[in-house]
Write a structure and sequence with these properties.
single chain, 249 residues, alpha+beta, Alpha-Beta Plaits, 3 domains, five-stranded antiparallel β-sheet, three-stranded antiparallel β-sheet, 37% strand, elongated
């Protein structure tokens, strides 16, 4: 019995010693095996691409007024039909014409201490036109006004295949990010190990043009409307994150 008690006492002491030593040993093991935090470099770049536009968007409308809604609609339909005929004669394809909206609204006169008085009706009919020949923009606008169009918004210049142009801007932005990343890495005595992430912003968004009112009388005496298409700018912004590593001696 004495021998058994002695063995139990020895085992108990060993367990207590292990419990006291194990946390310290585990902490030492974690400390010696912990991995250093990676060196991260963030680079922001922008690439702009300028290109001559190949399409122009124009919004053209007819506004008519009459005492009766029927006559206002009929007058508007006559002028808009003539405008469509002029567009087709100028070589504008059916797929490049789209009615944007037709609006009929009553017109009132408001006087003090009197109920509103109906004076007639106003009709607005608007069509969106895509012009693919940049040399025809001025003549098309003049032809529309000659047929009764009295509202024009545009032209809004665009690039039809904007994705291909934006891809070229993306390539340039990434090349700039890589060059700049390698520059900073060399300065720190390191090199790029891998690309961690790439985030993109920007792109091409045509800016809306203000509505321009044009009178037929002014168009009759004016020369052909001059239009300069210039260039369209597309911009891509990239935020690239690199992981760096030390250069082995």
């Amino acid at each position: 019995m004495t021998k058994n008690y002695r063995i139990a006492a020895i085992l108990g002491a060993s367990l207590i010693s292990a419990a006291l030593v194990s946390p310290t040993m585990a902490q030492s093991a974690q400390t010696c095996c912990a991995q250093p935090s990676p060196s991260i470099l963030n680079i922001n770049t922008t690439a702009d691409l300028k290109q001559a536009p190949d399409i122009a968007m124009v919004s053209a409308g007819v506004v008519t007024q009459h005492r009766s809604a029927r006559n206002a609609m009929a007058d508007n339909a006559t002028k808009m039909s003539a405008a469509f005929a002029a567009l087709r004669a100028a070589g504008i394809a059916e797929r490049d014409l789209q009615t944007a909206g037709i609006n009929l609204s009553p017109q009132y006169v408001y006087e003090e201490n009197k109920p509103p008085r109906l004076t007639g009706y106003q009709v607005t009919n608007t069509v969106n036109v895509k012009i693919r020949d940049m040399t025809k923009i001025g003549p098309v606008l003049d032809a529309l006004v000659a047929q009764g169009i009295n509202q024009i918004s545009g032209p809004n210049f665009q690039i039809e295949d904007s994705d291909a142009a934006l891809d070229r801007a993306r390539e340039e932005a990434m090349r700039k990010a890589m060059r700049r990343g390698e520059l900073y890495a060399r300065g720190a005595g390191m090199r790029i190990k891998r690309v961690v992430s790439i985030n993109e912003s920007g792109g091409y968004q045509p800016q809306p043009q203000p509505m321009v009112m044009m009178s037929r009388m002014a168009a009759d005496v004016a020369q052909q409307t001059p239009v300069a298409s210039g260039e369209v700018t597309m911009s891509i912004q990239l935020s690239v994150q690199f992981e760096l590593e030390k250069i082995a001696p």
